[in-house]
Structure formats: structure tokens, C-alpha cells
Amino acid sequence: MTGNFDKPLTERMHSDGSVVDLQAYEQAGGYQAIRKVLRTGMTPMEVTEEVKNSNLRGRGGAGFQTGLKWSFVPRGKDIPNPTYLIVNADEMEPGTFKDRLLMERDPHQLIEGAMVAGFAIEADIGYIFLRGEYTLAAERLARAIAEAYEHHYLGENVFGSGYSLELHLHISGGRYICGDETGLLNALEGKRANPRSKPPFPPSVGLFGKPTVVNNVETICCVPHIINRGAEWFKGLGRTRDGGTKLFGASGKVKRPGLWELPMGTTVREILEEYAGGMRDGVKFRGLLPGGASTDFLVEEHLDLPMDFSSLDKAGSRMGTGTMIVLDDQTCPVGMTWNLTHFFAQESCGFCTPCWSGLGWAERILKSMEEGHGQPGDLDKLAFQTKMWAPGHTYCALAPGAAEPVQSALKYFHDDFERHISEHRCPWR
Amino acid sequence: MLTAEEIQEIETEAGHYPKREAVCIDALRIVQRHRGWVSDDSVHDIAEHLGMSDTDVDSIATFYNLIFRKPVGRHVVMVCDSVSCWIMDYDRVKKHLHERLGIEYGQTTSDERFTMLPIVCLGCCDHAPAMMVDRDLHSDLDPQKIDSALEKYK
Amino acid sequence: MATVFVDDRPYEMNAEQNLLHGCLSQGFKLPYFCWHPALGSVGACRQCAVKQYKDEHDAHGRIVMACMTPASEGARISIADPEVVAFRAGIIEGLMLNHPHDCPVCDEGGECHLQDMTVMTGHDYRRYEFDKRTFRNQNLGPLVNHEMNRCIQCYRCVRYYRDYAGGEDLNAFASRDRVFFGRHEDGVLENEFSGNLVEICPTGVFTDKTLKHHYVRKWDQQFAPSICVHCALGCNTDAGERYGSLRRIVNRYNHEVNGYFLCDRGRFGYEFVNSDKRFRQPVLRGQPTSVAAAHRYLEETIAKGRVIGIGSPRASLESNFALRSLVGADQFYSGLADQEAKLIRQMLEILRRSPVRTPTLREIEECDAVFILGEDLTNVAPRMALAVRQSVRQQPMETVKKLKIPLWLDFGVRDAMQDAKGPLYIVAPYRTRLDDVATATFHAAPDDVARLGFAVAHALDSTAPAVAGFDDSTLAGEIAGALKAAKKPLVISGTSCANEAVIRAAANVAKAANAALSFIALECNTVGAALIGESPLSAAFQAVRDGYADTVIILENDLYRRALHAEVDSMLSAAPHVIVLDHLPNRTTEKAELVLPAGTFAESDGTFVSSEGRAQRFFQIFTPQNDVSASWCWLKPDRWRDLDDVLAAMSAEFPELAAVREAAPSASFRIAGAKVPRSPHRESGRTAVLVNINVSEPKPPEDPDSPLSFSMEGTPDQPPAALIPFFWSPSWNSIQAVNTYQKEIGGPLRGGDAGVPLFEPAALNGQPYFSAIPPAFRPRGGEWLLVPMYHIFGSDELSLAAPGIAQLSPKPHVAVNSSDFAEGMEVEVTCAAGMFRLPVRIYPEIPPGVAALSAGLPSLAGIVLPAWGKIERAR
Ligand SMILES: Cc1cc2nc3c(=O)[nH]c(=O)nc-3n(C[C@H](O)[C@H](O)[C@H](O)COP(=O)(O)O)c2cc1C
Ligand code: SF4
Ligand code: FES
Which pTM was predicted? Predict the structure, then answer.
């Protein structure tokens, strides 16, 4: 699949799946952004401004403006020491497989991004928080970090500029909630990964109580390119207001499941039909979760929506991670909802009631429904629970995320739920 | 007792954090890598080494999915049970493994060769269904692929 | 203050607080679980949800957690909005999913926070149809029972136990809806404040195991306000009785003293009251006798003249005073051992001249630099250790304030503070249980503890005497610097080192640093006894030895615990008549001709003076169906009819004690003509107290001594603080009812807190610096300086008679730092008191030549410490 647009994130990747090592990365123009920053005497604020102007929005799911987040970090002489940069490489959102590619295939891009981001927020120490199952990514990142240290790109006095950054790879003990940025902070401190209260926000009180920025892998990978080629260029990559390219993916019973770097704002239909090749023979499209398990179902009527943060927000869904999960007509939507809810119930950290208690209940209701024991009142109970998980009702965004597929499934696949109850069985079994 | 090698690995990681207790999760992972799982004795040894209470270490150990607090077989088969794999006929994979190995989730084969566990999305959704055996990812699974994959693990 | 609109009506709320705090303070019935006034907000349970509106035009609003939202000026919220009402009902439904239907057999039933909130929220029908999760319970030792299936995952237990009390052996395990709160494995909870879990847990997960052995419902108990008798801090308690046995102790909130928490000795030590060894009738020459016969004997013996009285630091002011009145002022002895009496006198002198009042425990929590000289607080004055543990948060809190994090936002505060701790310096002969939060510790012989103190004083103020030949001035300088930089510095010392110089050094530091000064005594009325009687034990011994007295009346005092056995023996055998009033048999009662069954705190009224100098009244909980009565009742002259007469006589004689009368309302106090009921209303309507025998009730006993009645009849209103027998108000059956007794949540009780301080601050600091500085300690070859080592469980005489406490008491031992011995080795300790075979514990921090010896344990009674002694391997 090639198109007539830049693919800054993936263009250096080898087609055989092997890793772009330091030499190859540099040959392809790598480590120029950090050189530019350090050699031209850009200030941290200037870097931050450039990223702000690029309208880069976080690729971890929430779409928060990256430059704005960086600007919250206290700067100057009297600030608490050190400042931390954390790369969120926990990628545990079901249906999501984008950061893995970036880390396995082009780890230096991430390292350079971390260096530039670290410079912008005046970080002294960086961590890459990697999920434990990504063993290949771990090996390749560890190797790349070692290479970068060997070449004195990392460590003290980078390129003789006086700027220093230590970068460590932390491998997680495994838990979806570690992906939440404040749960992640606790995990990195060696604690149970319960999320933290906000306020205080990580840029003022973060890791070990110090100013901290947490950014997604893909977000960080965009940074060197913005510095190299400018904010305007980056904005121009997108088809809509939300700038840049984005890794979009599709899984489920499509012809060519996969991952593609495409302009932000590429429509759902294009991704589904052109890149993923449409539905497999013999199955029909019923709906999709646009960006991982914690996004609302979209159906036929939404297919022409541009995939970007603002458009999907407006349609009552979320772009999330941009990796869609496709539901076909041979697959039971109730079963799928159960599967999703099972995941969230299991991954609840156990801190706040609507989540730990409500998700467990909802999961049991969906399971019994799928097994043919659904009761007439069950749908009301489910609908009520999803309201209990609304944003602000719970302590973190896990339960609100869990609510999205359930709520939208109840809306779009209501008849299927009813049939499970009235027929005392799953019609797909 | 932690081995000298384990201690050295823990200390290397500990150097990455400003606080000793922060290395607790790494320590659990390191010990598990050497011993397959984290026993009560290991919890105690790690606690002692880090100056923490057994209770605190265990509290952390039991929170994380990838820390095993019960003995496992020589190889751990972790089957992705998340949504994309589920759509791609996870049930068949699970059933095949159950039958092949004669065990349910959480159980270990009598020859202690395999332990089977469910795992959340492995980030391999475009090649679903998937599973991990030890540190290796196996994707696009069907019964034949499963059988040949398992062959490698003695 | 901020004006907050609740359902469109304006209320004044504390702007430094959150909305839950504000709403509860205003009397709103807003349910909550995870929040606790002493622990702050974390937003876990999501029960306290309210609707918040941007302004008066916002019709939509959004649901927020009251506990996580500041009570800011102009805030508009609704508690009654249907959507938020439904949300709260949804939360309680969620909490109840797994909760078992075991209220009828649950110890918490009827006083359960969860039950109250369930009713308050209106959840009554269970829609959940699936299996409940179940757990295995743990054996957490003799004091606290564990029943995990009832857990609602509010996280209060671990937050209290770990974050507040510093415990490390209780935590949360696993995740999702299967979080387990417990220990890594079965075993006794290690923290000395574990009993508070019983009140912290909003339901029946952690309950009082001692109560379990003789369980009764709250509404079937008869309560009275009481004062803990197990150390000198005077924590306020409520004690509950049924059928003549004491069933339990619960915390009685006193904003200035114990706040919400007690120590385990105080909570669980009560069972000595129920001991089957208790004297329940007079015993004359080994034979039970009648009250009339006992009185006759008492009168006849006294009439013969030549009587002396020995008082007691564990008997009330009233009992000590009654004895003193009976035998005459010159014939009364305080009952304190000589060294202790001397130390207490010294302490009192210093306090009387001090320009600042000794701080209350609450004030100690607010101190921002603490210097402890010679005390192992956790084992001697436990509740103060818990207060000091909070004080180390004061200085880091300044950083938190700068970050504009509200102080009630518990996790936010802790995340920002991390491990930062304010200054706490502990100088003592051996390690203490507060060392984990100390900035630095220094272990030295008592004289060297004093020398360091003197050096700190000198470092603070060069006019304070310098310490000749003192070489560790770095630490002294550091401590001086910390005290000087503090806004509220505090010095703590006491009698533990049995060393006068230590106390004087503390006084010098306090003067030099302009710091608050807190002295600790050992027993519940040590200070009171010292105020009533000046002469110590040896003077009493002397009087008998000199043939001056032939009758000795001993009040609630086992002399064998305080003096060399040979001396006590010779005194008791020289006295022709020995009359002893006490609760339980001991070596002294064995020697008595007549033993009078003295009421414990549970069967008596009286007043104790805490080491803070606070006089506090305790009230009889029940009238025993036997001859037991308060010691002062046995001893008082007929012209004193009731307690008020005793108090009147006492204040006439001791002007310094005049304020004692203000410690509680007099017996004539009434609220709208009614007394204060000792028993809660029985909502069941089942009012017969003796249902097990007969439903026709006997007339309840009269109580001439207090404004409390022995029944559920009386005022429905909230009584003054000193008279609160139990906390209850409509809808609030659990201990959380205390909310409704406070002016503002977590603040003083309505009408003021109980107790009166006896020592008013002096106008000027009239205390000159002490200049007698002891020379540095020099180890003696072949001999050890034996210093006392106190044990929270074991060193206190009475609580040791409670089975749970006895089970936790350590075996007597001696701790040294010497390569001559190995851990656990049997040794013989020989001193003036004799030879004792003990196991050795190696404490590497103990200075050479010093050995710490278990104090107060029965088998080591009679060793007067400090003493010099030999330690040799047992043959
Ligand atoms: C339950 C939960 C899981 C999350 N998992 C991830 C994750 O795996 N990776 C990630 O980058 N962000 C994840 N996030 C979002 C992060 O909290 C955070 O917003 C993100 O890392 C910020 O980076 P960005 O601004 O670059 O997107 C998760 C959020 C929640 C609530
Ligand atoms: S044990 Fe009690 S206090 Fe602790 S979380 Fe459970 S219900 Fe709350
Ligand atoms: S009391 Fe407010 S969330 Fe628990």
C-alpha cells in the first residue's frame, strides 16, 4: 500500500521486519532533530512551542495536545529536581498493535524522540515503560539504548551540548491499568498500579513526586520529524485539523488485517475497504470499534467519518488508538461485548466501586445472557451500570472506557440482546 | 536465598531508580525469570533484600498479571483471550490446547512441561488468534500451527 | 469560610475543607465510606456523590465526589437531585453485591457503618443473582478478628494501618473485585494500634476478638464514659457492660487527647475487670467475710491509732484523697517508688514554672520538630507515639501547601510528599518503634542521653551551661538547628530512664528552644498521686521500721512491683496489721490481714490526672452484684455522701486541685430535668434488661454520684463531652455517629472537650537553666548498668491480666550488645534484687556497659532500676 504522502514514522522500516539499527537510522537522516535542537541553540520553550504549533495530539488515546502538556512543566532554577520524561509503551488496549511496530522496527526513532521531548521539558531522566509481553521490542529497545549510550547520544553532555539525559527501559509486571499515566507512575515507583488523584497532575507532581510528562510511543516518535521539518509541514500531513500522520490498523474478519501510516483524517471507509481490503468473503460488516476496546461502536452510517480526534468525538465515539476492531455478521455482538467487559472487569485495579463492583456484575450478566440465561431486566441493569461508569463517576478512565462499547452495543445491537434473552440462547451458537 | 546473579541483576535495575523499593517489580520479574515463579520464600528473600515487609512485596506481586505466585511448568502457554483473537475463533484455539495438553487454564501438565494461562491482548491482532509460549509469540494460530509450535518446547 | 449552596440554600462551610466535610458538619446525611476525618479523602468508594453546578443557571450539573471537591466560595451542589440519589443507590448496591447476608451473626450488626449507609441510601432489594466471591480469613492474633467476605474494598484499613499508624504487615492483595486485605500469612498484627481497625473498618471485616468471646449487641450494653487506666496519657474511652461483665472498650473521641484512636493495650486491656480471680468480697485472714464485718474491723483497727496509708498511682485522686483523709496528711505516702517520686516532683516543678502549657496529643501532632529524650514512646505512652508519627508530616506539608494541593486530598499529599519527613530526633538507650520515622537516633546510657540534651540546649542558647568534655557536637548542633528552625518545636521526656538529669536536660532544651515540653509518667494517675502525697515508699517503710505505725493501709498498690522484695517483706512483717484494697490478688494482698474488694474503673467513679496535667473523670459502668466498690467508698467518712462531697473536700484542701470539680458536671446536673442514660435505646422495643431471667424488671440502681442513670431512660439530647457514654444519633448507629457530636467534623466536641488542665502556664519562664551536668557514662568492668525496657504488652500490671494482652507479652529478657553472649543464650542477671535467669537478646545499638531489662513483668518484679548488676552465662 503506498500513497502519495509522507510517512515519516514508518518510511525507514525494513520490509523484512528486521530492526533499523543506529547506523541505518542515521543514514536515513536520524538523530538530526536532536542535533538541530542542540546545535542551533533552540531553547526548551522553543521546542515546546514548535510542537504546540504542530497541533500534535497525544496518540495514547486521549488526544491531549502534546505541546500544551509540556508547557505545564515547571521550569527555571527553583523547581524540584529531577524532571522525568516517561514514554508510555504499555500498549495493552485490546485491538491495539501500533506502538509495537514502532519499537520493534525503528527503536532509534523513539529514542531520538525521547531526547527531543526530554530536552523540551528539561528532563534529566527518562523511562520507557514497556509491557512485559513485548519481548522482541524489549530486546531491540535495550540494544538500541545501549547503542545510543555507546555513541554518547544518551547520558551526560549529549553532543557536547551540556544537556544530559539518562534513559532506562522498565519492563512492566503486566496490567492494563499501568497504561493510565498515573497508574504507570505508581508502577514505576514499584507500587500497586492504582491510579492517582488528579489534581495534582503529573507535570507538577509526578514520578517520585517530581515534575513528569508521560507520552505515548507514537506521540514521541512524531517529535523528531516536527523538529526536522517544521510544525506547518506536520500539520499539512493531515487531511483535517488534527495534524500529522497516524498509524491506523484493522483487525477482525477483514481481508487484510494490518497497520498503515496514513494521513490523519483518512476516512473509516478508506481504511476498512482500501487498506484492509474489505470484509472477508462470506461475512458482512456490522460495526467496528474505531480505536481499541474502549471506544464506542460505529456502524454503517459512520463509515465516511474522517478518522481523527475531533470528528469521532463529534460522532459520539472516540478515535482512541486508531486501531479498529471489526465486527462481522457471523460474530455475536453480545459475545463480543461480554469479551470486552470481561477484559475490563479483569483489569480493574480494584480501587473504586463502580468499576470493581459494577464491571464484575456486568460481566456476569453478559456471560449468563450469552449462555442463554438472560433475564428480562438485564438490559436495564446493564444500561444503569454503564451510567455508573461515566467519566467523573469513577476514579480513572478505565471504567468510562469500558462503558463505551457496552453502551453503544446496547444501542446498535439491541435486537441481538433481546433475542438472547427471549430465545434463551445465543443465536450464533 | 537470592543467588548472586539475581542480586546483581536486581542491583543493576535498582540503579535506575532513586528509591530502593521502586525496584520491587523488577526484582520479582528477575527472580521469576530464574525460577519460573515467585514462591513465598522468594517473596521473603526479595523483601529482605529491599528492606521491605513480606506483606508489602506480596501485595505488589499479587497485583501484576505476569508475576506467578504458584508453581508453573517448564513452559507457560499464554493464550490471548481478548477481542480480536476472540473474533478470530479463539474458542477453537482454546479447545484445541485444552485437548492437546489435557489441562484447563491455571493447570500444569502432569509432566510439568506446560502451564496454560489466559492473557490479555498480545498486540498481535492483525495476526489473530495468537498465543505466547514463554517469550515467543505465535500468531495466526490453527490446530496444526499450535501442534508444531508446541513441539519446540520440551 | 465559604458560602456553599446546597439544594439552593446557603450554608457556611470551612473553605479549607472538602464538600463532604462541610455537608457532614452541617448535619446533612451524606453517605460515605473511604473518607475519614483523620485520613482524608481518596475518592475510592464513590459513595459521597453530589451534583455540582457551575452557577445558578446551570440546570444540568455534573456528578462529583463531595470528598474530592473543595468547599469553595459560591459552590452550588445538590444532594437531593434524583440522578445523584440514583447514583448513590447504585454505589451501595455495588458495595453490597458480595457482602454476605450475615448481619444477624455479624459482630458489627446494629452498629455497622455499612448498614447505616445502606439504609440512608435507600438500597433495600438485591438485584444481583450471581455467586459471591469468598475468601479465606486469617488468624490475626488474639485481638482482632478477620472476616474478609464482608469487605467492601474501601481501603480504609490499609490507609489507616500503613499510612497513619506505620504498620507494614497489612496490605491489599490481588485486584479487581477480589482485593484481599490482610497479611502475607496468618499471624498476629504487628502494629500496636491494630485495634483501631475495628472502628476504621466500616463493616464487620475487622472486629474486636475479645468482644467476640462474650458478645452482645451495642444496644444491649450499658456504657459509661471512662478513662483508660493503662498508661498516663488518659485516653478517653467508653466501656460497655452486660450481665456484670465488661464487654469491650471503644474510643471516646476527645479532640485534644486521643482523637479517633486508642492503642491496643488500652482497647483490649479491660479484661482484667472480668478476671475470675477478682476479689468480690472482703477477705479477712484468708477467709471471706461480710462487708459489715470488714467495716467493723477497719474501724476498730483504725481506732487503735498509729495508722499509715500508702496510696497508688493507679488509684483515682478520690481514692488517694480518701485514704489520706482517713490516716491524716502526715501519715499518707504517695505509693510511688523513691526514684520515681523524685522524678515526678522534678517534672511537676518544671511544668509549674513553664510559660507554655504541656501540649495535648493533638497539639503534638501539629509540632514540626520533635526531640525525644530517653523515651520509648510506643511502649510507654503508646498513643503519643501515634501522635508523633503524624508530627513528622508537618514540615513536608509546607511543600504541599506551596503546590496548592488541598491538605485533605490524601493521596495527592502523599504523592507530593513522598518519603519526606520532618525532624524527629530520638535519643534513648536502645531502639524504639518510632525509629522508622526518625531523622536520627542516638543510643546512649541515661547520663549520656542527658549530656546530649544539655549540649543541644547549649547549642541553642550559649547562656545555657556547656557540657564539659562533650565530643558529639555535630548531632547536638543538628538537633538544635532543627528545633530552632521549627515553628512548633517539642521536647519529650519522662521517667523511663529513671534519671533526673535527663529530665533537667529536657527542661533546658525546651527553655532554650522556646519549645513545648511534654513529660511522660508511667501510670494512669501517677501525677495525681504525686500531687496528693509527697512522701515516697521508703518513708512509709521507715515509719514502720521505726515502730511509728502498726497498721498499714495499702491502696491498689502491689508494693512488690516497686521496691526490693526484702524491704517490702520486712515492712509488711513488721506491721501488725496490713489492710489492702485491690482488684486482683498479688504478692501484697497475700500478706494482708484484710483485703477489701476495690472497684476497678468499671465499678467506680473517680478522676485521674494524665501526664499532660489534665484531670479527667471516669464513671462507673455498672453496679456489681457483689461487695466490690470504689476504694474511696470503702475509705470515706460518713459525712461525705457522694462523689461531689469528696471533690469538695479535696478542692478545699488542695487549691491546685480545685479545677478537678470542673472535669465533669456534678451529680445534680440534668438536661431538661433528665439524667443521661447509660444504655442506648433498644429500637427493637425489647426493653427488659434481664430478659434471660425475667421480663419484669427490677428497679434500676440509683446513681447518687453522677448525672448518669443506670438505664436507657433519660435525656435524648447529646450530653456534655465528659458524660458521653456512647455515640449514637438517629440514622447513625455506628461509631461514625461521633460526627454528629462535633461542632465541625474532626474538631472539638460540642460544648468543649472533656477534662481540665491543672497546670496553667506561668507568666514568665521562671525556670533557670539546670547546671548540674552528669559526667559521661563510663562502663564498669564486670558490671552492667541495668536500665528498664518497657513493653506495651506486659509492663502494665492490670492489662497483663487480660488474656489477649498476656498472650502478646514478651518473655522477660535482657538486651545487651556484647560479644560475650549470643542471641537467646541463658544468662544470670545478679543485682541488689537477687539473681534472675533470663535469655539474652543482642541489640547492637545499646552502648557498651549498659543492659536493658524487661520492666514490669511479674517474674522480674522488685528489681528497682536503674541498678548495677552482673550478667553471666547461666551454668
Ligand atoms: C486504563 C487506561 C489505559 C491506558 N493505556 C495506555 C497505553 O497503553 N498506552 C498509552 O500510551 N496510553 C494509555 N492510556 C492513556 C494514558 O493515560 C495517557 O493519556 C497517555 O499515555 C498520554 O500520552 P499521549 O498524550 O502521548 O497520548 C491509558 C489510559 C487509561 C485510562
Ligand atoms: S477491610 Fe474494611 S476497611 Fe478495609 S477495605 Fe475492606 S471494608 Fe474497607
Ligand atoms: S467518601 Fe467520597 S468517594 Fe468515598
Answer: 0.96
